[in-house]
Specification:
Low-confidence stretches: 339-343
CATH topology: Rossmann fold
Distance between the termini: 29 Å
Bound molecules: nicotinamide-adenine-dinucleotide, uridine-5'-diphosphate-4-deoxy-4-fluoro-alpha-D-galactose
Strand order of the largest sheet: 3-2-1-4-5-6-11
Number of helices: 11
Number of domains: 1
Number of strands: 13
Order of helices and strands: EHEHEHEHHEHEEHEEEHEEHEHH
Shape: globular
């Protein structure tokens, strides 16, 4: 199958790329490297011994996007490209709407022009907002609490309307919970450009000595140990979910939103303890005030993914921490310290 992957050099994109190449699919990555490095693509080539077409381009540039898509003539699209920092989205909302919403509209128009009718989209559990009940199932009301979440909810709506209006279209909206971990080779992983916003990359940078200590945002939540509880999903399992979604899109039409998580909540303290075991050193941490906007608990209902995609998570929190540590300890500065593509 020919698959056009926007944002394929990024964290989740590069892991999915490896999986697609290993399965024998032909892939074109379209990425402007705003938050990634072409070194990730070079490493995906090395890991799989396969070629990948790479186009440097911006999804906001509708002409360039349409040209690339027409040139490659894909059977399906996986749409990762976007901006994802919740805090930043409060400060520069228009850039988030232009990238995440207009970029998605540009992509669908380019697909129409190229006759491509299958899309798998990176959505987020953040579209649910405050939990009215747990676990979050796909019928939970959509009420995002920040601009980033609203762009994802809006892009979902645009894709749903497109799928309704387009004969034989198939769209899968994957709502990721908390992706963490890295490829088992230690060659690709998460490489935040600035101070990490998320827990696992922050813990990894403390472990490797890039940061002095972790701030635990609140220990007075109504959870087992008072710290926030999340559904961490191994990025390699998440990559597999994309392949399952692509297969599903070949046999079903319409638009489905599907959670991608393990269904298990892990607290901050539990994650830190698992990371300490994986890296064999203590993680310095202090209790800090709650982070505004954080919820106590979030975890997924996973039955729909099992029913429609035949997919469920296979890797546990120890696998997540071990693989993260291998990546972080073997690439302490991420891709930055790499000299030359493929190094
Ligand atoms: P990432 O930043 O590593 O990857 C996004 C990729 O898109 C990067 O390679 C970036 O360079 C590219 N990109 C950004 N703007 C672009 C533009 N205008 N044109 C072309 N390329 C552009 O992030 P990720 O964690 O791999 O996330 C991938 C997708 O999954 C995003 O859409 C994100 O919103 C979504 N998501 C991520 C998480 C998470 O916690 N990582 C959770 C839920 C959903
Ligand atoms: N946390 C800390 N210290 C840190 C960072 C995080 O204690 O330095 C805590 C948070 O308070 C929370 C938990 O660790 O309890 C997880 O926080 P993350 O920032 O890693 O993840 P979130 O659940 O807040 O959000 C992430 C992404 C969102 C996405 C959401 C659901 O950042 O974009 O998962 O998929 F929408």
């Amino acid at each position: 199958m020919k698959v056009f992957v926007t944002g394929g050099a990024g964290y989740i994109g590069s892991h999915t790329l490896v999986r697609l190449l290993a399965a024998g699919h032909d892939v074109c990555v379209f990425d402007n490297y705003a938050n990634s490095s072409p070194v990730a693509l070079a490493r995906a080539r090395q890991l799989t011994n396969r070629e990948v077409v790479a186009v440097e381009g911006d999804i906001r540039d509708s002409d360039a996007l349409a040209q690339s898509l027409a040139d490659f003539a894909p059977d399906a699209v996986v749409h990762f490209a976007g901006l994802k920092a919740v805090g930043e989205s409060n400060d520069i909302p228009l850039l988030y709407y232009q990238t995440n919403v207009t970029g998605t509209m540009n992509l669908l128009a380019a697909m129409d022009a190229a006759g491509c009718r299958r899309i798998v989209f990176s959505s987020s559990a953040t579209v649910y907002g405050e939990a009215q009940y747990l676990p979050f199932d796909e019928e939970h009301p959509i009420a995002p609490t920040n601009p980033y979440g609203r762009t994802k909810a809006m892009a979902e709506g645009v894709i749903r309307d497109w799928a309704t209006a387009t004969p034989d279209a198939s769209a899968v909206l994957l709502r990721y919970f908390n992706p963490v971990g890295a490829h088992e080779s230690g060659r690709i992983g998460e490489d935040p450009q600035d101070t990490p916003n998320n827990l696992m990359p922050f813990v990894a940078q403390v472990a490797v000595g890039r940061r002095a200590r972790l701030s635990i945002f609140g220990d007075d939540y109504d959870t087992r140990d008072g710290t926030g509880e999340r559904d961490y999903i191994h990025v390699v399992d998440l990559a597999a979910a994309h392949l399952a979604a692509l297969e599903y899109s070949a046999r079903a039409t319409g638009c489905e939103a599907i959670n991608v998580g393990t269904g298990q909540g892990i607290t901050v303290k539990e994650l830190v303890a698992a990371y300490e075991a994986a890296c064999g050193r203590p993680i310095a941490a202090e209790i800090a005030p709650r982070r505004p906007g954080d919820v106590a608990s979030s975890y997924a209902a996973t039955a729909k993914a099992e029913r429609l995609l035949g997919w469920q998570a296979a890797l546990d929190v120890d696998d997540m921490c071990r693989s993260s540590w291998k990546w972080q300890s073997e690439n302490p500065q991420g891709y930055d310290a790499t000299t030359g593509a493929g190094a």
